[in-house]
């Protein structure tokens, strides 16, 4: 690596350290969640200040982490606070709330993240009178997207139109900008726990060695897809992660934007495995991170990698339910990690619906999937190859075709996990799910954690 690249990575470490700090505080806050809420209830019950609602709208967990951090700061400053996902909030509760702080990210093309989709439709879709509410909005987004902070802005506009009173102007955060985040946190008093901790270090970038790389789709009409195996470059215990989690890869040419990849293995596999599609820019150069992983790095080289818990896509709470796993392309990574966890747990009530182009070239992890089918780990398997027949046929079409089976699985309490392309696949699957399940059940799935997505 040259000097500029190292300097760039140095800058990225500062951002990474801040993010790690947020993650560490979040982890601790999460563990103290019950206590914090209990304390908050006790404080308000004792005639103290009324509790502040800290509401989050999050897809991959950043807004949720900041919400918990905000609540902890409020709590440390003597203000009781309750943290809640926006989808868990109804119009009546909001109507009787005196003070609410919203931390809201944006997904899709200026849309609400999954954790706020029901709120956006149900509550924001109807007129409300919120004159007794004081509020503030922290909007998370990325200026690379056309509709910067689209959902945070829409939420702010809706609250304002409903008569709610802003405590201060909305703060828009571009790509986790530390200055904008500091401005928000400064509102709630000094941090109680900014000391470094083991948790922070665990969440920071570390060097991992590429142990193996294999092209999985030779001859494909699509871009090359690689299976990668990585191990920590320093000896020691394998760090922990759960199926559903992500990693971030630091890129020297773009130090403020690490790239996310879904982990496709479990720590017990002894390797952190990824499924990476090699991006190519229109000028023929390779994508920064996917090019690094699929081409620039040689086996034996190291890369800066950080584990990123993705609580919204873990199995937590759904372990005893049947699972419907739906995805396409590299989305198989996240689904494979879940299937490995299910196989290890002896749970065989799994249905995989996976889409790619052609069976001859794009049947990723074929041996493993066929072995799961033979062993019964997959109770049902639908491989959907869009180009193996004259008309294009995708996973959402298979779901509609299998509507009765889908209804049966949902009636039996199944949870739905979707991983892969946001455009086309995830939006099509969402529409199919709404059509088959009906709007009421779709909302219930969304608000009770039975519908989880890792889509990009
Ligand atoms: C939650 C999540 C999970 C993900 N999981 C996976 C996964 O498991 N596997 C996987 O393969 N991917 C995954 N991704 C996508 C991944 O994070 C990257 O976005 C992807 O690999 C492309 O990154 P890159 O650095 O290679 O490409 P970049 O260099 O960032 O390029 C991406 C695009 O940006 C534009 N662009 C950038 N630079 C230029 C330029 N110089 N000229 C022209 N156009 C340009 C082009 O449109 C290009 O196609 C995931 C994303 C998210 C958010
Ligand atoms: C697939 C995808 C779509 C996104 N769309 C937008 C967008 O339209 N506007 C925007 O400002 N940010 C967009 N973002 C950026 C996220 O809002 C931002 O990364 C945010 O910090 C994520 O927070 P979360 O982890 O709480 O979901 C998008 C990110 C991804 C991965």
Topology:
Blueprint: H1 3-31, H2 33-45, E1 52-57, H3 62-76, E2 81-85, H4 91-95, E3 99-105, H5 117-122, E4 134-141, H6 150-161, E5 165-166, E6 171-174, H7 178-186, H8 198-202, E7 206-215, E8 225-232, E9 246-249, E10 259-262, E11 272-277, H9 288-296, E12 302-308, E13 323-328, H10 332-345, E14 350-356, H11 359-362, H12 366-375, E15 380-385, H13 395-401, H14 403-411, E16 415-420, H15 422-437, H16 439-447, E17 451-455
Parallel strand pairs: 1-2, 1-3, 3-4, 4-5, 4-6, 13-14, 13-16, 14-15, 16-17
Antiparallel strand pairs: 7-8, 7-12, 8-11, 9-10, 9-12
Helix pairs in contact: 1-3, 13-15, 15-16
The chain binds flavin-adenine dinucleotide and flavin mononucleotide.
Flavin-adenine dinucleotide binds next to strand 10, strand 11 and helix 9.
């Amino acid at each position: 690596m040259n000097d500029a690249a190292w300097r760039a990575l140095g800058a990225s470490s500062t951002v990474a350290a801040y993010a790690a700090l947020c993650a560490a505080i979040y982890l601790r806050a999460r563990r103290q969640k019950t206590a914090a809420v209990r304390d908050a209830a006790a404080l308000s019950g004792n005639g103290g200040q009324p509790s502040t609602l800290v509401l989050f709208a999050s897809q991959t967990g950043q807004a949720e982490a900041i919400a918990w951090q905000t609540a902890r700061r409020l709590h440390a400053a003597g203000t009781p606070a309750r943290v809640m996902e926006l989808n868990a909030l109804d119009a009546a509760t909001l109507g009787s709330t005196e003070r609410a702080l919203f931390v809201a990210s944006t997904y899709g093309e200026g849309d609400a993240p999954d954790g706020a989709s029901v709120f956006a439709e149900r509550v924001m879709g109807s007129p409300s009178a919120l004159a007794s509410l004081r509020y503030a909005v922290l909007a998370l987004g990325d200026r690379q997207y056309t509709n910067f902070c689209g959902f945070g802005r829409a939420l702010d506009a809706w609250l304002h139109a409903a008569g709610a009173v802003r405590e201060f102007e909305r703060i828009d955060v571009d790509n986790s900008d530390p200055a904008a985040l500091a401005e928000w946190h400064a509102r709630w008093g000094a941090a109680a726990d900014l000391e470094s901790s083991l948790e922070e270090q665990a969440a920071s970038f570390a060097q991992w060695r590429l142990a193996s790389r294999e092209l999985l789709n030779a001859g494909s009409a699509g871009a090359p897809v690689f299976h990668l195996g990585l191990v920590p470059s320093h000896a020691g215990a394998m760090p922990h992660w759960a199926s559903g989690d992500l990693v971030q890869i630091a890129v020297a040419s773009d130090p403020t934007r690490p790239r996310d990849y879904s982990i496709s293995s479990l720590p017990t596999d002894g390797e952190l495995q990824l499924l990476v599609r090699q991006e190519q820019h229109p000028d023929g150069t390779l994508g920064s991170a996917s090019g690094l992983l699929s081409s620039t790095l040689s086996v034996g080289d190291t890369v800066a990698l950080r584990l990123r818990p993705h609580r919204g896509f873990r199995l937590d709470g759904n372990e005893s339910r049947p699972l419907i796993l739906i995805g396409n392309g590299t989305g198989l990574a996240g689904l494979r990690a879940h299937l490995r966890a299910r196989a290890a747990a002896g749970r065989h009530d799994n249905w995989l619906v996976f889409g790619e182009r052609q069976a001859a070239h794009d049947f990723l992890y074929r041996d493993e999937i066929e072995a799961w089918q033979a062993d019964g780990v997959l109770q049902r398997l639908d491989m959907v190859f869009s180009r193996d027949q004259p008309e294009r046929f995708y996973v959402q079409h298979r779901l509609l075709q299998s509507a009765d089976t889908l209804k049966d699985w949902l009636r039996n309490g199944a949870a739905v996990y979707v991983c892969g392309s946001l455009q086309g696949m995830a939006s099509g699957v969402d529409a199919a799910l709404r059509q088959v399940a009906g709007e009421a059940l779709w909302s219930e799935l969304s608000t009770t954690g039975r519908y989880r997505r890792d889509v990009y």
